[in-house]
Amino acid sequence: MFDVLKGLDVPWRRVGVWQVDERVAPDGDADRNANQLEALPGKHRLMPVTATDLSAAARRYARSLPDRFDVVHLGMGDDGHTASWPPGDPVIDDADPVALSQPYQGRVRMTLTPSVVNRAIGRVVLTFGAGKAAALAAWADGLELPIAHVKRTRTVVFTDRAAAVGR
Q1: Is 138 exposed, middle or buried (0-12, 13-18, 19+ CB in 10 A)?
Q2: Residue 44: beta bridge partners?
């Protein structure tokens, strides 16, 4: 996706890129989502996941957010999680705009919460691969998954044949 975006005629110096979620890990760690953003032009606002006080850092990041995003880019995991809203994690109901998840796949994560994601003008969900087929079908059928907390209106889903096989 980033390669396609880089090729578009976009005034990148006027584009702000905020992270939706990030694993609490040192700068440069292979687990960090920030590593992928390096290839994308624009002014990056990375989540402060190396801060000593993560709760205070989440509040600071929340204050940096715009009133509403134009678009929020999301993925979806095999278990139906999106952003860093793991199944069964109370972060999904957090009233704050930015919150910390419980440890998930070995990492605590900082994440935008549903209120921020759903306030955006639009959302784009990318989900590819056969491993996503069951979760994508369950989401389409209205089953309770973390991604079901994403507002469906003005949300576009891009997938491949392997992930869509359940439909």
Answers
A1: middle
A2: 17
Question: What top-level class would CATH report for the domain 2-164?
Answer: alpha beta
| pTM for this predicted structure | 0.92
Of 84, 65, 56, 63, residue with least CA distance to 147: 84
Taking a C-beta distance cutoff of 8 angstroms, is the pair 109, 58 a contact? Answer: no
The per-residue pLDDT for range 18-76, each reduced to its tens digit, is: 999 999 999 999 999 999 888 888 899 999 999 999 999 999 999 999 999 999 999 99
The helix (H) or strand (E) run that includes residue 36 is helix 34-37
Inter-residue contact 123 to 71 (CB < 8 Å): yes
The domain limits of the chain are 2-164
Q: Cα separation of 42 and 16, whole Å? A: 6
